[in-house]
Design goal:
By secondary structure, the protein is an all-alpha fold. It folds into two domains: 96 residues, Cytochrome c oxidase, subunit Va/VI (Serine Threonine Protein Phosphatase 5, Tetratricopeptide repeat), CATH 1.25.40; 56 residues. Helices cover 68% and strands 0% of the residues. It is built from nine helices and no strands. The longest helix has 33 residues. The radius of gyration is 44 Å and the shape is elongated. GO terms for molecular function: metal ion binding. Keywords: Heme, Iron, Membrane, Metal-binding, Mitochondrion, Mitochondrion inner membrane, Transit peptide. It is a peripheral membrane protein. Component of the cytochrome c oxidase (complex IV, CIV), a multisubunit enzyme composed of a catalytic core of 3 subunits and several supernumerary subunits. It is found in: Mitochondrion inner membrane.
């Protein structure tokens, strides 16, 4: 075997090279680790002004609904800070815009529980007084409390009112019967007695 035949056998054919090149191009790439980049959440400890601006924008948004209002309030009162005056004002304005009076009352209640000293809460109320008076917001303690009344008490009161009403009707019927007896002759005494018996019977039926 000459050298030319040996070189021809060892050299790859053009078809084989073309198949190998196609295989290399269609090879699946190895999976790579995907790392999702999240922006750091704002916090009052790291960026106070940015945190205030974020929530002021949230409560002032025209797309704000009841769910987003409640969610925002839960987040700002759960954070390690006392909400700024501007954020409270925007939150109260949002409550008025959404016509949710109970939420506005709860904001003041949550603010009172959030401050460290009662004097700080009084300072908030003093600064918020014009807005509170304008919107008609009151504190929870100004709404009063409801005393639980047993059903028996209500039933007893209703029974007493019914008895008083029946007694008035009984007295009125007796007066009418007395006036009629003075005008009637002696022959009309029997109907008068019948009316009197009917009235007394009705009065006895109303007694407990």
């Amino acid at each position: 075997m000459n050298r030319l035949s040996i070189a021809t056998r060892l050299a790859p054919s053009a078809h084989r090279l073309r198949v190998l090149s196609l295989a290399q191009r269609t090879r699946f790439a190895l999976p790579t680790t995907i790392i999702r980049s999240y922006s750091a959440e704002l916090a009052p400890e790291t960026d106070y002004n940015g945190y205030v601006t974020k929530w002021r924008t949230h409560f002032s948004s025209a797309d704000l609904d009841d769910f987003e209002l409640e969610r925002g309030l839960n987040l700002i009162f759960a954070a390690d800070w006392v909400p700024s005056l501007e954020v409270i004002q925007d939150a109260l304005t949002a409550c008025r815009r959404l016509n949710t009076f109970p939420t506005a009352v709860r904001i003041l209640e949550a603010l009172e529980n959030k401050v460290e000293k009662k004097e700080q809460y009084q300072q908030y109320l003093k600064a918020l007084k014009p807005m509170i008076d304008d919107l008609g917001i009151v504190e929870r303690k100004e709404l009063g409390t409801y005393n639980v009344v047993r059903d028996s008490k209500w039933c007893g009161q209703q029974q007493q009112e019914d008895d008083d009403e029946n007694m008035e009707l009984d007295n009125g019927s007796q007066q009418v019967g007395a006036e009629d007896s003075g005008k009637d002759d002696e022959g009309d005494q029997a109907p008068e007695a019948a009316v009197d018996v009917h009235v007394k019977g009705e009065g006895r039926a109303c007694l407990p």
